[in-house]
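note to self: dont lose this again. the chain is below, predicted strucutre after it. 247 aa total, dont forget to put it in the shared folder this time
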Amino acid sequence: MSALTIENLDISYGDSKVTHGIGFTVAEGESFALVGESGSGKTTVLKAIAGMARSWSGSIAVFGRPRSHGIDREFARQCQMVFQDPYGSLHPRKTVDATLSEPLTIHGISDNGERVDEVMRSVGLDRRFRFRFPHQLSGGQRQRVAIARALILKPKLLLLDEPTSALDVSVQAEILNLLKRLRREQGLTYLMVTHNLPVVSFLCDRLAVMRHGRVVEIADVDQLKQGLLEDPYSRELVELGAAHPKT
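---
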């Protein structure tokens, strides 16, 4: 089954059209990347899927169910987003416990304590962090909380917006290994936005290259690793990545 199907997706902000005819499919259990330079429309696609950018046409379907333009609680149980900045995505006056419990309360799920403990263990956070505030956590710990918050409703599809780019280099590998393990253990599907091609090589199965709001190429990650991407812009990205490697 397809976890995500995007067809002819045009997204606008006011009178400005950001994407043009975007289309791709992500299989259940797959890790798929959207890559391209800043301004190519990658994150805008994630926002449309998540319901944060509502001015769009075309179709978005998650596990065969069409995505509406509004707030959809049932959709939230299937799909969640992890944001780029772990410093900005957590409420500074809420403890880890409050942050993780809030989605459960909203959705009427009563086993708060057990599920919070379970999800904290799954992301490698000890119980002693449960009643701490974000300013008492490191960047890596905050991103683990953000991932835990995304997983608390037990979705099957995660939207990952540059999940390691705001972290210290020493912590990036820990979070990438965590994401890889969670995908394997929980049968998750990932759609990840990144400009970091080594991250794509490590975590993803396929990628779509975006430029000026359009998909110019869809390829297997083996093609990326072997330098066999076909579009000239795709090859240019690889060359830029080789000249300016990021960990």
